[in-house]
Amino acid sequence: MEQSVFEKIYEIVKQIPYGQVATYGQVAALAGNRRWARVVGNALHVNPDPDKIPCYRVVNKEGRVSKAFAFGGENRQVELLKAEGVEFVNGNVDMKRYHWERPVY
């Protein structure tokens, strides 16, 4: 049986290493379609298992956290990332240091 789009997205998000972040577009491309960035946001907003699917590790391409973070707001997303050692510069994740460099095939 083929995985649903959301299931593909969740599988990618589970692979983001501790202390690193990925972008919505990157997750979309890895899940099969680089135009699914908004779909990634929708999937993460209804994350069925936040303990196993670390949606807080997904940020926009500038490293900004989501104002609509589903599990406690943007401040909670910042707290979770900082707890993993992720540093922020001018309010955004330091993408040069913490961006997950998984190649898209």
Describe this structure in words.
The protein is built from five helices and four strands, in the order H-E-H-H-E-H-E-E-H. It is mainly α and 105 residues long. It has a single domain, classed as Winged helix-like DNA-binding domain superfamily/Winged helix DNA-binding domain (Arc Repressor Mutant, subunit A). A two-stranded parallel ribbon has the order 1-2. A hairpin with a 2-residue loop joins strand 3 and strand 4 (92-93). The longest helix is centred in the first third of the chain and has 11 residues, at 5-15. The radius of gyration is 13 Å and the shape is globular. It starts with a helix and ends in a 7-residue tail after the last helix. The relative contact order is 0.20. The model has no long low-confidence stretch (mean pLDDT 91).
N-end to C-end Cα span: 23 Å
Secondary-structure element series: HEHHEHEEH
Name the shape in a single word. globular
Helix percent reads 40-55%
> Class in CATH?
Mainly Alpha
Structural class, from helix and strand content? mainly alpha
Largest sheet: spatial strand order? 1-2
CATH architecture: Orthogonal Bundle
- Name given to the CATH homologous superfamily: Winged helix-like DNA-binding domain superfamily/Winged helix DNA-binding domain
Reported by name, the CATH topology is Arc Repressor Mutant, subunit A
- Strand portion: 5-15%
Supply the number of structural domains.
1
The counted number of beta strands is 4
